[in-house]
Amino acid sequence: MKRNPIFLILTFYSLFLLGELKSSLATQPKNENQVYIVYMGGVDSTNGSLRKDHDHVLNMVLRRNEKALVHNYKYGFSGFAARLSKNEANSIAQQPGVVSVFLDPILKLHTTRSWDFLNSQTYVEIDNTLSSSTPSSSDICIPTGWNGTCMTSKDFNSSNCNRKIIGARYYPNLDGGDDNDVAGTPRDMHGHGTHTASTAAGNVVSGASYFGLAAGTAKGGSPGSRLSIYKVCNFGCSGSAILAAFDDAISDGVDILSVSLGGSPDPQPDLKTDVIAIGAFHAVERGIVVICSAGNSGPEQSTVVNDAPWILTVAATTIDRDFQSNVVLGNNKVVKGQAINFSPLSKSPNYPLITGESAKKKTADLTEARQCSPSSLDKKKVKGKIVICDAINDIYPTFSKIETVQKAGGLGLVHISDQDGAVVNNYAKFPATVVRPKDNSILIQYINSTSNPMGTILPTVTIIKYKPAPMVAIFSSRGPSSLSKNILKPDIAAPGVNIVAAGTSSPYSMKTGTSMSCPHVSGLAGSIKSRNPTWSASAIRSAIMTSATQINNMKGPIATDLGLIATPYDYGAGGITTTEPLQPGLVYETSTIDYLNFLCYIGYNTTTIKVISKTVPDSFNCPKDSTRDHISNINYPSIAISNFGGKGSVNVSRIVTNVGEEEEIVYSAVVNAPSGVKVQLIPEKLQFTKRSKKQSYQVIFSSNLTSLKEDLFGFITWRSGKYSVRSPFVLTV
Ligand SMILES: *[C@@H]1O[C@H](CO)[C@@H](O)[C@H](O)[C@H]1NC(C)=O
Ligand SMILES: *[C@@H]1O[C@H](CO)[C@@H](O)[C@H](O)[C@H]1NC(C)=O
Ligand SMILES: *[C@@H]1O[C@H](CO)[C@@H](O)[C@H](O)[C@H]1NC(C)=O
Ligand SMILES: *[C@@H]1O[C@H](CO)[C@@H](O)[C@H](O)[C@H]1NC(C)=O
Ligand SMILES: *[C@@H]1O[C@H](CO)[C@@H](O)[C@H](O)[C@H]1NC(C)=O
Ligand SMILES: *[C@@H]1O[C@H](CO)[C@@H](O)[C@H](O)[C@H]1NC(C)=O
Ligand SMILES: *[C@@H]1O[C@H](CO)[C@@H](O)[C@H](O)[C@H]1NC(C)=O
């Protein structure tokens, strides 16, 4: 029977300023016990009965302090979070069955430029509810076998769950959290969880728009799917709560997890202390697809997080939509600006313009004034004018300058940028816009040509079918993975810039980040799962990756926001497509054993691995010499080779499984190789029959290049009629 999948959405209350978060941590008394996570690997049974060693260690803790326990993990994996002294933590780490003990980390949500969005929401009424923004639909029902629950609170009762939202849990602040606590409710006050949930599985709603912009029909990636919400973020997202949500979600029976949050890439936690990697491992072991945001720390290399090989890691791209807020000059010429604002200014150029330089305060530095840095502007000169601020060689974003201009009595702000870019920010009611290098000459000439320059800033209009699109967003975190250069990360890219979805403080809200791209892929995974309910998590990942596109809507290669041709470090296999993944032809299945081999390579021994995985066969042993070549040979839908060049050839193998309708089918290989590299496939044709659904092949990479100057990229594609199964590869120096 066809069963629509159930999602896990990790959702949030609010993360205000980081400063606030830091200060609240800093005020914790120093010698009070801190919360530690004690991770003990897998479970013997999924009914909640504790493993003997788990029971033993937990009792050790409770004997000393019966109130120490914060969370007990017992359905999906073993362990607990508890308040411990440093000495206690150290001694627990030595106990049999304990894999790792570490301080409870604070993770953050993966929306970016969120201050802009918070600003924009300060003037709208709070009147919506989680359930009305994703209304229930009559063609879906609560599935049999669903073990989830609908937790209630003062502002959230059982009728807030329905046939769409079939589960809701929350994880209050560690200090108890009563009903009056903002954390003590499954209700989403911040909007991040509502937005991501409706992107993944919202019903079709026509007439959606963000205050009139980006109007159209809103619909989630898998409208027939049900949602289960796990609210793990309050003031920051504690690792112990995230693990509790994974543990509950595994026991509730979700099919897909959509996780739009993560840690910092600098320094990235190792796998023993990475809560998302730990929770995801146990979920994937049970056949659940885990999809995570790659992070918003781009465009610097090696910033991707959530990069364990069992996770589907998602980067962000733009869509074919632009938001223009143009500047009209006194001579009636129009300068293109990019911004989202609801400028209340008149459409006639009746407002005086002044440059930051001309509005310099006596005591201020000339460069600072040109850039409209804090307290560099003279109020008398700025009052009632639109200020032109320079962003050349300046890292401060537009919104930080709005404050300076607004404080000085300015009416509006035109920011002259020295970077091309496609990420458009939201300045709400303040008339602010960004002029890119290719558009700024008319403006600069006009200012120079008159002693009394005038102008206005028009409110934003939506431009659709914008070209080129998609582009990889500047903030999207990049590969290579810092875990291993032998697994390519991120895996895939999806829309994550100015996404309109359900809101909490208004019916729709617009948000940006890999947080937004992640649920697009979760929705797609939901559609694949409902069409192919028996497919493994890795088959679903493979289908999404091998059908991705590297071509934009101008039939050129997908570029980055900065105009460079994108590589798999930017977008993995490419941008998602929506119909091809439903019928991928062939899939690469990655097994739990593959993942355990990865753990061997990372430094776990066979004994520890048998604690982590209770499904591993007794015969499993780490390879005697676990080398990076073993990792390149994991049956992953992409290929990554490290230390390539000047040493002859490298040989990797893969196995593909025919999942197409045709049992008798032949695929031929097409290779796009970087210059100077020879890529040989053995065999060059794959013949599938009724009896042989699986075929293996080898890829031999060789090169004459004595030394590789930079990492090289290419693609291997297996083709047959309507099917095209494409894998990216990377060869690193
Ligand atoms: C849970 O399962 C284990 C092993 O399958 C069994 O020994 C135990 O009695 C069960 N416990 C409960 C509470 O059902
Ligand atoms: C739940 O709350 C709503 C108002 O928010 C109310 O109309 C409804 O009757 C309540 N349902 C239950 C079961 O208490
Ligand atoms: C729900 O719980 C029951 C009893 O513990 C278990 O047999 C079943 O597999 C669970 N369902 C899911 C979907 O995990
Ligand atoms: C504007 O005027 C300044 C100073 O007079 C000059 O340096 C600059 O080149 C002029 N810019 C343009 C675009 O005409
Ligand atoms: C495996 O690793 C653990 C943790 O590092 C260590 O305590 C244990 O002695 C090791 N076991 C073997 C058989 O090497
Ligand atoms: C590639 O490696 C595999 C396993 O190490 C080996 O069996 C095979 O012969 C190699 N192929 C070539 C063409 O070297
Ligand atoms: C290596 O060099 C030889 C001779 O110049 C050439 O024929 C061959 O194609 C080169 N191989 C690669 C992989 O570039």
- Helical percentage: 10-25%
Identify the CATH class of the largest domain.
Alpha Beta
Strand content: 25-35%
What CATH calls the topology of the largest domain is: Rossmann fold
InterPro entries: Peptidase_S8/S53_dom, Peptidase_S8/S53_dom_sf, Peptidase_S8_Ser-AS, Peptidase_S8_subtilisin-rel, Peptidases_S8_3, S8pro/Inhibitor_I9, S8pro/Inhibitor_I9_sf, SBT
Subcellular location: Secreted, Extracellular space, Apoplast
Pfam family, one: fn3_6
Domain Subtilisin-like protease fibronectin type-III: 633-730
What does this molecule look like?
This protein has 4 domains: 6-20 and 107-320 and 469-584, Rossmann fold, CATH 3.40.50.200; 31-106, Peptidase S8 propeptide/proteinase inhibitor I9 (Alpha-Beta Plaits); 321-464, 3-Layer(bba) Sandwich (Glucose Oxidase, domain 1), CATH 3.50.30; 635-731, Immunoglobulin-like, CATH 2.60.40. Helix content is 22%, strand content 27%. Strand 39 (712-720) and strand 40 (723-731) form a beta hairpin. The longest helix is centred in the last third of the chain and has 18 residues, at 514-531. With 733 residues, it is α/β, with parallel strands linked by helices. Mean pLDDT is 86; it is low at 9-30, 113-139 and 176-180. The chain is globular and about 85 Å long. Bound molecules: 2-acetamido-2-deoxy-beta-D-glucopyranose (7 copies). One 2-acetamido-2-deoxy-beta-D-glucopyranose (NAG) binds next to loops.
